[in-house]
Write a structure and sequence with these properties.
By secondary structure, the protein is an alpha/beta fold. The strands form 2 sheets. The protein has a 7-stranded mixed β-sheet with strand order 3-4-5-6-2-1-7. Strands 9-10-8-11-12-13 form a 6-stranded mixed β-sheet, sandwiched between helices. The longest helix is centred in the middle third of the chain and has 25 residues. The protein starts with a strand and ends in a 7-residue tail after the last helix.
Amino acid sequence: MQDTIAAISTPFGEGAIAVIRLSGPQAIAIADGVFRSKRRVCELTPRVQQFGVIADASGVLDEVLLTVFRAPASYTGEEMVEIACHGGILVTRRLLGLLLERGAHSAAPGEFTQRAFLNGKMDLTQAEAVMDLIRAQTDLGLRAATEQLEGRLGGRIREIRDGLLDLLAHVEAHIDFPEEDIDPDTGAALLARLESVWERIGLLLRTADQGRVLREGVRTVIYGAPNVGKSSLLNRLLGYERAIVSEIPGTTRDSIEEVVNLRGIPVRLVDTAGVRDSECAIEREGIARTLQHLERADLVLHVVDASQPRVEENEPGHLLVLNKTDLGEHPSWAGCEGVRISCLEATHTLGIEPLAEAIFERAMGCGMTSGDFAVAINARHQACLKTAEQHAQAARQALMEGLSAEFIALELRSALDAVGDVVGRVETEDLIGKIFSTFCLGK
C-alpha cells in the first residue's frame, strides 16, 4: 500500500484512446515529472482534465488529457492520476514504461479495486461486482451487477449481521451479568428474532442458482434424432443461419456452440449430432460428443418431430420440444407435456416465444420474473452463508432445547463470522488475494 502503482486500464490493442492509471502516495509527483502543460499536476483542479504532453529526455511522446483525483475522493481512496492518450500499442507501452522508470510499480490484476476495498471505498461484494459488471453478457446480468455495485447485496448482509450482533449482545450480557438478571429476550421473542435472521439467510441462499446463471449462462444442449429440426431451432433462437440445414440425415457431424440472450439470461446453445446407429466413423464420433455434452448440460432441449409417430420417451428433467407442429400433430403425442413449436412458422402460438419462456422458467425458477434477481449471490457468498445458516440453525435448536447461554453465544458468533466473510469484515490475505487475482489488469 506504500507503493505507487501504474497500469494500462483499457483493453490491449489498437484504439482511438487508451487510459493509463496511477495510484499511490507518489502518483501526482511521478505524473508531475513527465507532464508538460500550462499548470503543474500538483496545481490542477481535481476531476478536471488538463491538456498537455508527456515527454522524456528525448522529447515529446504523446499529447494527452490528464486528470487528478485527490485522496480520499478517488476510486482507490488514494492519490490518483488518469492519463488519456492515443490508443496505439507502442505509444501506450512507452508512456507506461516512462512512469515505471520514474518510480511507479506495475499493478497486479485487480490491484486498483483491491486498494479501494482495503481503503474502505467498497465492501467485498461491491468489489466482486466490478468484474461482474465488466463480464455481463445480458441486460439482466448487467442490472444484477449494478445493484450489487451500488451496495444492495452488502446492505442485505449488513442487516443480517446487525441482527446477529443484537442477538449475541443480549445473550453475552446475560452470561456476563447474571446477578443483574438481564433477560436476553428468552423464550418465544428471542426465538422469533433468530428465526427471522435465519429466514433472511435462506432467502439469499435461494438466489445462488440464479446468480450462477446470470454470471455463467445456462449450458443448453439441443438433442434428438436426425432430421427433427435441431439445427433449424438453433438458427431460429440465434436469429441467423449459423448451422447448415438439410433433409439429409447426419448433416451435423460436430457440435456447434453459440450464446444467445433469452429473457435477459445468457444461454449457451449447443447443437449436436443426431443420435442414431451409424456405420460412418465420423458420424459416430459426433454422436459420442453429443453424449459428452449431455453429461455436462444444465438444460437439455429434447427435440422431436411431432408430425411423426411417437417412438421415444422423454428423459426426466429434459425439456421436450415438439417441432414441426405446423404439419399437424400425430395423435400419439396427444396429452404429452412439452413445448409445441414450428421453426418455420412465426405465429405467436407456434413461434419460438413459448420455448424462450420455458427455458427462462427452467433456468431461473417457475413463477419468477427478471425483477426477482436484482440481488443474486455467487459461489463464495453461498459457501459463507451456508456456514452461517448451519450455525444459526444450531443456535435456534439450542434455544428450543433450553441449552446454556454459552453454547448459544458460541453458535451465534460463528454465524456472525461467516456472514462477515461475505462483505470482507473478517478478511484474510488468502481470501483477498484469490478474489482479486481474477480481475483484469488495470482494474
